Amino acid sequence: MTELCGVQLAGPVLNGSGTFDAIAARRAFGDALLERFPFHAFVSKTITLAPREGNPPPRLWETPAGLINSIGLPNKGLEGFLERDLPELVELPVPLIVSVMGFSREELATLVRRVGERDEVALIELNVSCPNVETGLVMGADPAETALAVERVRPRCDQPLIVKLTPNATDPAAVARAAEQAGADAVSLINTLKGMALDPRTSQPWLGGTTGGVSGPAVRAIALEQVRAVAAAVAIPVVGMGGIASGADAADFLAAGATCVAVGTESFRDPSAGLRITAELAGPVPV
Ligand SMILES: Cc1cc2nc3c(=O)[nH]c(=O)nc-3n(C[C@H](O)[C@H](O)[C@H](O)COP(=O)(O)O)c2cc1C
Does a cis peptide bond (omega within 30 degrees of 0) precede residue 64? Predict the structure, then answer.
């Protein structure tokens, strides 16, 4: 058993937000998905207040060791999520973590209050990797901005709050400390690193969104270092992710100070990666 902010989990393996569509998987695999669910808690794709179409295609580029995505957070918006997705997600056999992103502190506060009204939601994750339209600053790249956002939303719900840190910050440990002091109950990291790819035929940006987020094995070493630095800087639990593809990778993140780990890009290659990683974690650590 693993405990995350007072919530009991059957183990430490979560999914990275936006990398496993449990609703589509249930449609494809039926109740077999529920019997062998790959994660010990499920993190929803990030939702925003208003519905979003996401970025124009193409949205993915495969690198030698991972992906660059410019999905752009397509989602049904808060009301669409509460009405249509939440009833399906609560049928999953594990605690539910809902990921929210606001383009202002007011939007974030509304999201946290409305999602927090639902007892089926065990924890709320704040995705702060977006620019605040009021200041132009990426909330999670700056300790003071992060603290203001967390202070504003902390009183709006009873659930524990996880702040998802961006690696595109000068000092992620300073941001983590600011989040902790402002009332965050846990931090998760890393989100994707900013990157781009050129279309080899035109030398123009390949991705419809011009730039995108790099994930997968390419970012693992960076993520491991940031998880170690953040875990040493805060007393709250850390959810570590970034390129985890095996039980040995997950064990490294736990040894670096993470309480839980999350699997992202690897689930695109192998949808049952969460199960495999859990089994490998429980077995002898390969040398
Ligand atoms: C296609 C794709 C979509 C993602 N969508 C989200 C999202 O909606 N919210 C979020 O916080 N992170 C999102 N992420 C970031 C992942 O949750 C994770 O932080 C990151 O990919 C690093 O882990 P990985 O290397 O195991 O994929 C996304 C990543 C990918 C590849």
Answer: no
Residue 136 has pLDDT above 80, yes or no: no
> pTM for the complete prediction?
0.97
Nearest CA to ligand 1 atom 16: 16
**CA separation (Å) from 185 to 130, 216, 244?**
21, 26, 23
Q: For residue range 166-213, what is the model confidence (pLDDT) as tens digits?
A: 999 999 999 999 999 999 999 999 999 999 999 999 999 999 999 999
Is any atom of ligand 1 closer than 6 Å to the C-beta of 70? no
Tokens, residue 210? 């011009």
Q: Is the CB of 69 under 6 A from ligand 1?
A: yes
Backbone angles phi, psi at 44, to 5 degrees: -70, 160
Hey, whose CA ends up nearest to atom 21 of ligand 1? 215
User: What average pLDDT does range 93-111 have in this prediction?
Assistant: 97
Section 82-100 average pLDDT: 98
Task: Based on the residue annotation, tell me whether 157 is a catalytic residue of this protein.
Answer: no
The confidence band for 285, taking pLDDT boundaries of 50, 70 and 90, is low
Rounded Cα–Cα distance for residues 287 and 279 (Å): 16
Locate 170 and state its tokens.
């000068």
DSSP state of 284: P
- Of the listed 5, 130, 157, 260, which one is catalytic? 130
DSSP 8-48: EESSSEEEPTTS--HHHHHHHHTTHHHHT-S-SBEEPPPB-
DSSP 175-237: HHHHHHHTT-SEEEE--PEEE--B-TTT-SBSSTTSSEEEESGGGHHHHHHHHHHHHHH-SS-
